[in-house]
Write a structure and sequence with these properties.
Strand order of the largest sheet: 4-3-2-5-1-6-7-8
Number of domains: 2
CATH superfamily of the largest domain: Mur-like, catalytic domain
CATH topology of the largest domain: UDP-N-acetylmuramoyl-L-alanine:D-glutamate ligase
Number of helices: 15
Number of strands: 17
Distance between the termini: 47 Å
Largest sheet: 8 strands, mixed
Structural class: alpha/beta
Length: 454
């Protein structure tokens, strides 16, 4: 097998499989089984630590980031896999909160290649298996696994997680998951395992949700029923259930509290990531059997931010908010969290073709004063620029169509005053484009400083 660098591997994987998205577990499970068998033959068995799988329309990344921060603050060794990435592929696989090095990913890819035989895997499936291989060799206490799409047929679901989390259920990826919240709920709940904890953050349950949960056989804990959030001005408190002394596989909801009383965590910060996703993180970790110290939880979550999740930064003195909101539910959350300002909100946005652009625009239409849009150039799944513009016009809004997202942002930035805020949203691609520009600006500033010092 020829030696390949990571960039060469990624180019190969992007082009090899006939479909970018090919849901199903048969192919990836067969390769994983072959990898396990080969390791056994070499007397190096694959052993994974406690695993928590997270599915949901929105909030998955925030929940995983919160769990990771809490575990690191307690001194545990943590692995996490998320997708997609913003700047570098390595962001998808982290150990101890840091992206892993190229050589670890390349070695994992090579091992997968030897094991797959004639089985074709997607780009995402290769990455999922690589993450699991890296985690198995990293002497970890816990792994946090973000579902890529749906849940039931997502590659992550080859792992029987100790705890499953479903953050939210809303319309998105309908071409693959179904056109109703009920159908989407079935796909999300597919990560649950019979007899094991299932932590659910969706408070507006779709029709028949209780029956869907019952059919999984999982021990469900629902927000507002089994655990709760008490919001204050700048802090919130939560009550979560403890698992006591029993092993995870033996739990029942009635036995989750050791003394009949929930555990309380008070003084948690409202700022940063949404309180519901922090709450889900705490409840999931408790269900996984970890004892959490109150002060460590507060310290871990205080000021915790995640790239592209209502992230604030400055770009040459201009205030910018980055949010990967790419469906109507996420747009509603973004609109709710944009405070009144003295100036204007200027949007820089674009979406992929399977997204409800009209549904994204609607909740932001009363907040955004100016729209600057562009067609995403890095994928053939982009919504056409003229379509983006027509939706704005049909909604009675005016917008300007640019050649690229970079051009849209630079123009918005140039025209913004000190009182204005530029809001970048609609896709990971939208946020990535601005992050690239921000990184380039920082590099130029550093070079100028270094040159002056010299």
């Amino acid at each position: 097998m020829p030696d390949r660098c990571l960039a060469e591997w990624l180019t190969l994987l992007e082009a090899r499989h006939p479909s970018e998205i090919d849901l199903g577990l048969d192919r990836v499970a067969a390769v994983w089984s072959e990898i396990i068998a080969r390791r056994l033959d070499k007397k190096t068995p694959l052993v994974l630590p406690t695993a928590i799988t997270v599915a949901g329309t929105n909030g998955k990344g925030s929940c995983i980031a919160s769990m990771q921060a809490i575990m690191l603050q307690h001194g545990y060794r943590v692995g996490a896999t998320t997708s997609p990435h913003f700047i570098a592929y390595n962001e998808r696989i982290s150990v101890q909160g840091q992206p892993v090095y190229d050589d670890l990913i390349v070695a994992a890819f090579a091992e997968i290649e030897l094991a797959r035989g004639q089985i074709s895997l997607t780009y995402f499936e290769f990455g999922t298996l690589a993450a699991l291989l890296i985690f198995a060799d990293a002497d970890l206490d816990i792994i946090l696994l973000e579902v890529g799409l749906g849940g039931r047929l997502d590659a992550i679901n080859i792992i029987d997680a100790d705890v499953a989390v479903v953050t939210s259920i809303a319309l998105d990826h309908q071409a693959w998951l179904g056109n109703t919240r009920e159908l989407i709920a079935v796909e999300k709940l597919g990560i649950a395992r019979a007899g094991r904890p299932l932590v659910i953050g969706e408070s507006d349950s779709p029709q028949g949700f209780d029956q869907m949960i019952a059919e999984t056989g999982a021990q469900a804990l629902l927000v507002g029923v089994d655990f709760s959030i008490d919001l204050h001005e700048d802090q919130f408190a939560i009550e979560v259930l403890s698992i006591g002394e029993r092993s995870v596989g033996e739990l029942s909801v009635g036995e989750l509290s050791t003394d009949g009383q929930p555990l309380e965590f008070v003084g948690l910060p409202v700022s940063g990531l949404l309180p519901i996703n922090k709450t889900l993180a705490v409840q999931a970790l408790i269900c996984a059997g970890f004892d959490l110290d109150h002060n460590n939880v507060i310290h871990a979550l205080n000021g915790l931010i995640l790239t592209g999740r209502q992230q604030s930064l400055e770009f040459n003195g201009v205030k910018v908010v980055l949010d990967v909101a790419h469906n109507p539910a996420a747009a509603v959350a973004l609109a709710k969290n944009l405070p009144p300002i003295a100036g204007r909100y200027i949007a820089v946005a674009s979406v992929l073709s399977d997204k409800d652009w009209s549904g994204i625009v609607e909740p932001l239409s009363e907040i955004i004063d100016q729209w600057r849009i562009a067609e995403i150039s890095d994928t053939d799944r982009a919504t056409k620029g003229q379509t983006l513009l027509e939706v704005l016009y049909n909604a009675g809004l005016s917008g300007t169509l640019h050649e690229t997202l970079e051009e849209a942002f630079i123009t918005a930035h140039y025209e913004a005053t000190a009182d204005d805020t530029v809001v970048v949203f609609g896709s990971f691609y939208s946020v990535s484009a601005v992050l690239y520009l921000h990184d380039e600006l920082q590099q130029q500033s550093k070079q100028n400083i270094d040159g002056t010092v010299q």
